Fold:
Amino acid sequence: MNRRKKGNVLLELGVIAVSFAALLLLLYFVMVVSFQNGADSAGVTMQLAEQIARRIFDQPTMDQISTTALMIRYGAHLGLFFVVGFVTTFVSMVVFRGYYRIFGVIGAGAVCYVLAYYTEYYKQFVEGRHFQQSDAALNWYGSVAGILCMTGSYFLNRLLVKLS
Structure:
């Protein structure tokens, strides 16, 4: 019995360590992407927008390519920070147990809020980049969606376990 309990504790610590490592890797990726030079960032986005616009339209105009680039940028903000919110909430729910999970979710929200605005604020110090309040809001909305999705899946899982 004691050996089994010790094995469970080691497994739990392993899950926590792997979760934290994955979260730190994700946050590093967010920082690298966010602090990329403005010309490089715009070049990658426009290149991708041209390829997508050519698949949608026969002869895309610059306006259509620019609109596609804007949608890619908005989608990237929402999608990336959705993953950040989801993973941060997962890690906080693994670390905090029982009734303390609410503190973990609130903490995950605080981390996501700071990260959503910090990444945009810091861009004004990167060559060719600038702060945009709308991008910070998109980051935050993506994070909130990830937090709600992870929290909802937790409660759905608990409900299904109780029903079975």
Q: What stands out?
A: The two ends are 27 Å apart (CA to CA). The CA atoms of residues 96 and 103 lie 8 Å apart. The chain has a mean pLDDT of 87.
